[in-house]
Amino acid sequence: MKKITFIVISLALIMVASCSAPKKDNQKSTETVETSNPKQAIPEEKNTQVASETVGSGQKLYKDKGCLVCHQLNTKLVGPSVKDIAAAYSGNKAGLTAYLKGEGKSIVDPSQASVMQPQIAITKALPAEELDAIVDYILSVK
């Protein structure tokens, strides 16, 4: 009975999540980042555009892979909100990546870690660039 209830709730949440439209962020910066060698200035616009594209693709993957079903932006549902995850792993990209690969421990809400375990198989199977994009998206949320 518990399994059936869990499956029904999961399917309902997936349907709700798949009906929402992703936001697009088209802001670009034109600042220049100075390197240790002043003759080699790296345009901030290019770095920002690459980061923005990674975050944008990560946001789409986050939605498409069903993460949104349990992890809303500001609201705790089944799992912690994206903002709570981003705050807990701020400056610790390697830690979040390790957790999603099944190689690390939950630091956001360890009491709920068992709920995420079935999903770890999905995140472990993701190609490295997709997982990296999802992690970048999560950590970009403020």
What does this structure look like?
- This protein is mainly alpha-helical and 142 residues long.
- The chain contains six helices and two strands, in the order αββααααα.
- A two-stranded antiparallel ribbon has the order 1-2.
- α4 (93-100) crosses α6.
- The protein is globular and about 45 Å long.
- Residues 15-50 have low confidence and may be disordered.
Order of helices and strands: HEEHHHHH
Please summarize the sheet with the most strands.
2 strands, antiparallel
Mean pLDDT over the residues = 74
The structural class is mainly alpha
Rg is: 17 Å
CATH topology: Cytochrome Bc1 Complex, Chain D, domain 2
**Please, how many helices?**
6
Question: Beta-strand level of the residues, as a percent range?
Answer: under 5%
> Any low-confidence stretches, pLDDT <50, length ≥5?
15-50
The CATH architecture category equals Orthogonal Bundle
Which quaternary structure do these chains form? single chain
Major sheet strand order: 1-2
Number of domains: 1
Query: CATH superfamily membership, which one?
Result: Cytochrome c-like domain
The CATH class is Mainly Alpha
- Tell how many strands the DSSP assignment holds: 2
Give the end-to-end Cα distance, rounded to a whole number of Å: 39 Å
Fraction of helical residues: 55-70%
Shape: globular
